Amino acid sequence: xxxxxxxxxxxxxxxxxxxxxxxxxxxxxxxxxxxxxxxxxxxxxxxxxxxxxxxxxxxxxxxxxxxxxxxxxxxxxxxxxxxxxxxxxxxxxxxxxxxxxxxxxxxxxxxxxxxxxxxxxxxxxxxxxxxxxxxxxxx
Length: 139
Known about the structure:
Blueprint: H1 4-17, E1 22-25, E2 38-45, E3 50-52, E4 57-71, H2 75-92, E5 102-105, E6 111-115, E7 118-134
Parallel strand pairs: 1-2
Antiparallel strand pairs: 2-4, 3-4, 4-7, 5-7, 6-7
């Protein structure tokens, strides 16, 4: 049986996989970026939880990261469309089917990355904060 953390991250990856861009989890950047764009979900950091007693509960604000990458002629428009699709996917269900209390993305900080012999990349890391509670930090 998966931990709540893994279940939530898998649900977030499934949500991203429904988008037109290719969605990977924890992989390295491939040599070729699909025309629709590429998303790589990184597990991130659960951080220090707030703890309540009676009953014992650990309240996390887990910071996962989505690496969003586009390549091609109209990178700005493609990047904008990609980030808008991520926002819409998260806004459609802020609890990922009741698995967590709240999901919210933070603004990306895009950068242009030159690629020798090919069109440059436009990429950003989009932090996603997952608010959830568990009875055990390892379970």
